[in-house]
Write a structure and sequence with these properties.
The complex is a heterotrimer.
Chain A lengths: L1 H28 L4 H6 L7 H11 L5 H13 L13 H36 L4 H15 L2 H15 L23 H7 L3 H38 L2 H8 L4 H35 L8 H10 L3 H29 L1 H4 L2
Helix pairs in contact in A: 1-13, 5-6, 5-9, 5-11, 6-9, 7-9, 8-9, 9-11, 10-11, 11-12, 11-13, 12-13
Chain B lengths: L14 E12 L2 E13 L4 E5 L6 H9 L7 E8 L2 E2 L5 H7 L4 E4 L3 H4 L6 H12 L5 H14 L5 H5 L8 H13 L5 E5 L7 H18 L2 E6 L2 H7 L2 E6 L2 E7 H6 L4 H8 L39 H5 L5 E3 L2 E3 L4 H7 L16
Parallel strand pairs in B: 3-8, 3-9, 6-7, 7-8
Antiparallel strand pairs in B: 1-2, 1-4, 4-5, 9-10, 10-12, 11-12
Chain C lengths: L1 H11 L6 H19 L34 H37 L1 H15 L3 H12 L3 H28 L2 H8 L4 H9 L4 H24 L11 H10 L5 H28 L5
Classes of the chains: A mainly alpha, B alpha/beta, C mainly alpha.
C-alpha cells in the first residue's frame, strides 16, 4: 500500500506544476500581451500601474525567469490583484472559500446519500420499475444545466409555494454569526444562535439539493454496478445461509463491499460539484468562490479567473489524492499487505 | 411453530425430502434442474451426496435451505424435524438458517466477506439469532468457536481478515461460523475441493469429530468418492437431477448396482490395479436443456435396453439399497465385476 | 389479436430497441431537423420585437416574450442552430485529436505515450468549466473561442479511451500475424488495430453530445460564449435569471438542453447495446 501512496504523492507536485504552467501559458496568451492579463485593458495607458506590474511579475525578464517569478509568487499566495475588487485575488478567495465549502460538503452528503440509496434500490430491483425510476431520476440530474434547475426550483419553492426562503446565505436582514470556521451552520451552532442556525439550514437546503442532484447520476450508476457485482458473490449466499435478513445482507455485506470502489467516483464527483458551484452560486446569491468566478468571467477579470482556475484545479487534485489514500485504507485487502 | 429443543424423537428423521422438484425459468423456457429427489438424514448420521458437477447436488441443498432465487419454482416436501419447510416465507427460514441448519461452502476465500474480520463474521452469526447477546460476549464466543475448530492463536485470528489466513484455516473458520449456534444439521458443500490434499483429511476429520460430539446430522456433498467413502454412513448418488442409487456406504461401495455408480467406482484409481489407463465413463452428463428421454443415463450405459429409452426408472429396493434402474437385478446377477474393473475394458497387459 | 401481435413482436424485436432508445432517437431527430430547417419555419423572427415585453405564455406566444419583446419559443427553437452544430464541431474535433493522439501513444508506447498521457493528466486535473473559462477568457469571449476552448478541454478523455482500446487490441493474434507478415507500423495501426477500436469511442461521443451542449450553454451563461442578441440557450437562461419573476423566459431553453442531453444519452445507451452485446 505504501508504494502506491508514495507514487501518488510523487506525482502530485508534478501535476500541480502542470496546472500552474497551464495558467502561466494562458496569461501569456491573453490577447497577445501578458500585461493585459495582469492589469486589464483599461489600465494600459497608465504608466505607473504598468511599471508596478512589470516589477512584480518580472515582465521585462526572460520567459523562464518570468515563470519562476510566477511560481514563486503563487507559493507566497500572491495570485495577483483582482481588476474588479482591487483586492488581492488570494485574499478574495480565502474570504469566500468557506461559503463554497459549506455548500459543496452539504451537496456531497445529500447527493452521495441519495445517490447511494438509489444505486442500492436499482441493484436490488434490477430491471424492474424501481430500477428504471431510480436511474431516470439520477439521469435527469446530470442532464439539466444546474443554473437552470436552480432557477426553476427556486421559483417553485420560494416564490410559488413559499416553503423555502429566497436566495442568500441568510434572510436579508439577519446578520451572520461570529466568525469561527466561516461555515454559517457550524458557527451559529457554536455561538448558540439557534434561530440563525435554522435560517442558515433552510437557506442551504435548496442549493445543496440542486447541486447534489448533479452528482446523483454518476454515484448511483457506480453503486448499482458495484452492487450487482457484489450480489453475485458467494459470501452473499453464505450470509443468507447464516440467517441474515435481507436488509442486513444488502447493507452490512453487499453495500460495505460495493462502497469501496465507489470511493473513487466520490472523489471524482467533486469536480462536478465545483463545476456546479461555479454555475449555481449566482442563482442563489451565494457569496462563494463560484459566484466570484462568474463575476470574474463576466468582467474579464483575468487575475481572478486564473486564481480560481488554479485553486479549483488544486482542490480537485487534492480530493482525488485523498480518496485514493482513503481507498487504500478502507479495503483491508490492500491495507494489510 | 419451530422448536429449538434438540429432537429426541427417534422415529422422526432429521431431514426428510420427498419428491423435490426444482425448475428454473430460463430465457429459452423452463429447465428442470431437480426432477424428483427423495432423501433422508438422521441425527448423528452422515449422508454423502455424490455426483459430477452439474448433477444438482448443490441445488438440492440450496433448495432445502431456501437459498434459491425467488424466480425458481420448488415443488415437493422438505421436512426438517417434522416441520414442513417448502413454501415457507423467507423470514421464517432465516430463523432456521445458521441456527438449526448450518451450511459451509466450497471456496472459503469467496464465501467469507473480505472486508469483515473472522471474529466479526462469527459473532454476527451469533447475534443474528440472539439479539440479547452483547458484542463482547459474541466476540468471546467467536474465539471459543475458533478454538473448537483447532485454529491456533484464536484470539489473534479473530481480529484478522480472511485473506490473511491460509486456505485450510479459512475453511475451519467457516465451519466455526456454521457451528456457532450448534445446529442440528450441517450441510457441507464440497468442503475440501478447494484445499490441498493434506488439509482435506484434516477438515474431514474435524467435521466427523464435530458431528460426533454435537450429534449433528451431516450432509457431505462431494464429487470425490474417496472422501465420501471414508466419512459417510450412507451415500446417495445423483445423476442429472435425480438420485439413482442410495444406501449404506459399505453396500454401495462393495456392490454397486446402478451402472453409473459402477462407472464412478471403476474410475477411481486403485493401488492394486495394474491397469495402464484409468477407465472412464464414455460420454458426458446431459445438459439441463437436453435431457434424454427415459433414463437419463441410458445413452452412456453399456446395458441399455429399449425400456431404458422409454421410461424413467423409479427408485426401488434391490438387495438392501435403493436403485433407479430397470435392469438392476439382471445386471447384478449376470455380470458382477469385482470393484475396480469395468468388465468390457481390458486390464492392462495381463 | 393484440396478444398475437405482442407475442410476435417480442419474438422479432431486437434487444436494443427499447422505449428509451426510441424516445432518444425521436428527440435527436427532432432537434437535428430543427437545427437544419428552423430558419424556414413560419414562426416569429427570433431577434425582432414582436409584441409586448415580458408577457406570459398565451395563444400568440406559447412560451411568452422576453425583455425585448421577442418570442421565446422561436428563440428556443432557433437556439438549436447554434448549440447542435457547435456540439458536433467540438465532439468531432475532440475525437479526431484525442483518438489520434491516444492511438499513437498507445501503439508506440515509450516516450510518445508518456508525453501524451502527461498532457492528458494535466488537462484532466481541472474541473472542466474552470479550464474552459480560463481558455475562453484568454482568447477573448466569443462562440468561436468557446468552441476552441471546449475542444481543448474535451480531447483528453477520448485520448484515454482510444489508448486503452489500442493497448488491448495490440495484443491480439491477428496483429502479431500482420507484424510477422511484414506490414509497416502505420499499416498495422490503421488497417488492423483501429477498425476494432472505434465502437466505444462512437458510443462515448454520442453520450457526450448532450454534455457538450451543457458546457457550451454554461459558458454562454457566464458571458464567455454567445453574446446578445444571439438566441443561444445558455445566454437565454442568463436573461431569464435577470428577469426572475418571468419564469417562462428560462423555461424553454433549459427544457431544450435537458431534452437534448437525455435524448442523446438514451441514444448512446442503445448504441452500446447494438455494438457491444456484453453489457450488463
Amino acid at each position: 500500500m505504501s508504494r502506491y501512496i508514495i507514487r501518488r504523492l510523487i506525482a502530485m507536485p508534478l501535476l500541480l506544476l502542470g496546472i500552474v504552467s497551464i495558467a502561466f501559458l494562458l496569461t501569456h496568451f491573453t490577447k497577445g500581451d501578458p500585461l493585459i492579463s495582469i492589469i486589464g485593458e483599461r489600465q494600459m495607458d497608465n504608466p505607473v500601474v504598468i511599471a508596478a506590474a512589470r516589477a512584480r511579475w518580472g515582465l521585462d525578464r526572460s520567459l523562464p525567469e518570468q515563470y519562476l517569478i510566477y511560481v514563486g509568487n503563487l507559493l507566497t499566495g500572491d495570485f495577483g490583484t483582482s481588476l474588479r475588487t482591487k483586492q488581492g485575488v488570494g485574499r478574495d478567495l480565502a474570504v469566500r472559500l468557506p461559503a463554497t465549502l459549506e455548500l459543496v460538503i452539504a451537496a456531497m452528503l445529500l447527493g452521495g446519500g441519495v445517490g447511494i440509496t438509489l444505486g442500492v434500490v436499482a441493484a436490488r430491483y434490477r430491471d424492474r420499475g424501481a430500477d428504471h425510476l431510480a436511474r431516470f431520476f439520477a439521469l435527469i440530474g446530470s442532464s439539466m444545466p444546474v443554473f437552470w434547475s436552480g432557477l426553476i426550483l427556486l421559483f417553485i419553492f420560494s416564490v410559488r409555494l413559499g416553503v423555502l426562503p429566497g436566495p442568500g446565505l441568510l434572510d436579508t436582514r439577519t446578520t451572520g454569526p461570529p466568525f469561527v470556521t466561516g461555515f454559517y451552520t457550524v458557527d451559529s451552532l457554536l455561538a448558540g444562535q439557534l434561530s440563525t442556525l435554522a435560517e442558515a439550514i433552510t437557506h442551504l437546503i435548496l442549493p445543496a439539493c440542486v447541486l447534489g442532484w448533479t452528482v446523483m447520476g454518476i454515484i448511483s450508476r457506480q453503486v448499482r454496478a458495484n452492487m450487482l457485482d457484489v450480489l453475485h458473490q458467494d459470501y452473499i449466499v453464505a450470509a443468507r445461509a447464516k440467517g441474515a435478513s435481507e436488509p442486513r445482507v444488502l447493507v452490512n455485506h453487499a453495500l460495505r463491499n460495493a462502497l469501496i470502489p465507489t470511493l473513487t467516483i466520490i472523489g471524482f464527483s467533486f469536480a462536478y460539484l465545483i463545476t456546479g458551484a461555479v454555475l449555481s452560486e449566482t442563482i442563489f446569491s451565494w457569496p462563494g468562490v463560484g459566484s466570484y468566478a462568474v463575476d470574474a468571467a463576466r468582467n474579464l477579470d483575468y487575475p481572478a479567473i486564473m486564481g480560481v482556475t488554479i485553486v479549483g484545479g488544486t482542490a480537485f487534485l487534492l480530493t482525488n489524492l485523498a480518496t485514493d489514500i482513503a481507498y487504500a485504507f478502507v479495503d483491508p485487502r490492500i491495507r494489510f499487505k | 411453530m419451530m422448536s429449538n429443543a434438540a429432537s429426541d424423537d427417534g422415529d422422526m428423521s432429521l431431514l426428510e425430502v420427498r419428491g423435490l422438484e426444482v425448475t428454473f425459468a430460463g430465457a429459452r423456457g423452463r429447465l428442470e434442474a431437480i426432477r424428483g429427489v427423495d432423501l433422508t438424514v438422521q441425527s448423528g448420521e452422515t449422508l454423502g451426496l455424490v455426483g459430477e458437477s452439474g448433477c444438482g447436488k448443490s441445488v438440492t441443498m440450496l433448495a432445502v435451505m431456501g437459498l434459491l432465487p425467488p424466480t425458481v419454482r420448488i415443488a415437493g416436501s422438505i421436512r426438517f424435524r417434522g416441520q414442513e419447510l417448502a413454501g415457507r416465507p423467507q423470514p421464517e427460514l432465516a430463523k432456521l438458517r445458521g441456527a438449526r441448519i448450518g451450511m459451509i461452502f466450497q471456496d472459503p476465500m469467496t464465501a467469507l466477506n473480505p472486508v469483515l474480520t473472522i471474529g466479526a463474521q462469527i459473532a454476527e452469526a451469533i447475534r443474528i439469532h440472539d439479539a440479547a447477546v452483547s458484542a463482547r460476549a459474541a466476540a468471546a464466543r467467536a474465539v471459543e468457536m475458533l478454538t473448537l475448530v483447532a485454529i491456533p492463536f484464536p484470539e489473534r485470528r479473530a481480529l484478522q481478515y480472511p485473506h490473511e489466513l491460509s486456505g485450510g484455516m479459512r475453511q475451519r473458520a467457516m465451519i466455526a461460523m456454521a457451528m456457532a449456534n450448534e445446529p442440528d444439521l450441517l450441510i457441507a458443500d464440497e468442503p475440501t475441493t478447494a484445499l490441498d490434499v493434506t488439509v482435506q483429511a484434516q477438515i474431514i476429520e474435524l467435521l466427523r469429530r464435530l458431528q460426533a460430539t454435537h450429534r449433528m446430522g451431516l450432509v457431505l456433498i462431494s464429487h470425490d468418492l474417496s472422501i465420501v467413502a471414508g466419512a459417510a454412513d450412507r451415500v446417495a448418488i445423483m445423476y442429472a437431477g435425480r438420485i439413482v442409487e442410495q444406501g449404506g456406504v459399505e453396500d454401495i461401495f462393495d456392490r454397486p448396482r446402478h451402472p453409473y455408480t459402477r462407472g464412478l467406482l471403476a474410475s477411481l484409481p486403485k493401488i492394486d490395479n495394474q491397469a495402464a489407463r484409468l477407465t472412464a465413463i464414455d460420454g458426458a452428463p446431459p445438459s439441463l436443456a437436453a435431457r434424454p428421454s427415459g433414463c437419463a443415463f441410458h445413452p452412456r450405459c453399456r446395458h441399455a435396453a429399449e425400456i431404458c429409452a422409454a421410461r424413467d426408472p423409479e427408485l426401488r429396493d434391490v438387495g438392501g439399497v435403493t436403485v433407479a434402474c430397470h435392469l438392476a437385478e439382471t445386471i447384478d446377477a449376470a455380470d458382477a465385476p469385482p470393484p475396480g474393473r469395468l468388465a468390457s475394458q481390458p486390464i492392462g497387459t495381463a | 389479436m393484440a396478444e398475437a401481435v405482442s407475442a410476435l413482436t417480442a419474438f422479432t424485436r431486437p434487444r436494443w430497441l427499447t422505449v428509451p432508445v426510441v424516445v432518444g432517437g425521436v428527440i435527436a431527430v427532432f432537434w437535428i431537423a430543427v437545427a437544419l430547417t428552423v430558419q424556414w419555419w413560419p414562426i416569429d423572427n427570433p431577434v425582432l420585437s414582436v409584441g409586448r415585453r415580458l408577457s406570459p405564455p398565451d395563444g400568440a406566444h406559447w412560451l411568452g416574450t422576453d425583455a425585448l419583446a421577442r418570442d421565446v419559443l422561436s428563440r428556443t427553437l432557433n437556439g438549436a442552430r447554434y448549440s447542435l452544430p457547435i456540439a458536433l464541431a467540438v465532439i468531432a474535433s475532440a475525437v479526431a485529436i484525442g483518438a489520434a493522439l491516444g492511438a499513437v501513444g498507445g501503439f508506440l508506447g515509450g516516450l510518445a505515450d508518456a508525453v501524451v498521457m502527461r498532457f492528458v493528466d494535466i488537462t484532466l486535473s481541472f474541473p472542466v468549466i474552470l479550464l474552459a473559462m480560463a481558455v475562453t477568457a484568454s482568447l477573448g469571449p466569443s462562440l468561436r473561442n468557446a468552441t476552441i476552448a471546449m475542444v481543448i478541454v474535451w480531447w483528453p478523455s477520448y485520448a484515454r479511451l482510444m489508448r486503452a482500446q489500442v493497448l488491448a487490441v495490440k495484443e491480439r493474434e491477428h496483429v502479431e500475424a500482420a507484424v510477422a507478415a511484414g506490414a509497416s507500423a502505420p499499416r498495422v495501426l490503421i488497417t488492423h488495430i483501429l477498425p476494432l477500436c472505434w465502437s466505444p469511442v462512437l458510443i462515448q461521443a454520442t453520450m457526450d453530445f448532450g454534455q457538450v451542449v451543457l458546457l457550451a450553454s454554461s459558458l454562454s451563461f457566464i458571458g464567455l460564449g454567445a453574446s446578445p442578441p444571439t438566441p443561444e440557450w445558455g445566454q437565454m437562461i442568463s436573461e431569464g435569471a435577470r428577469n426572475f419573476y418571468q419564469w417562462w423566459i428560462a423555461l424553454g431553453p433549459g427544457a431544450a438542453i435537458l431534452s437534448v442531453a437525455l435524448g442523446f444519452n438514451f441514444l448512446g445507451d442503445g448504441l452500446r447495446d447494438i455494438l457491444d452485446p456484453r453489457t450488463q
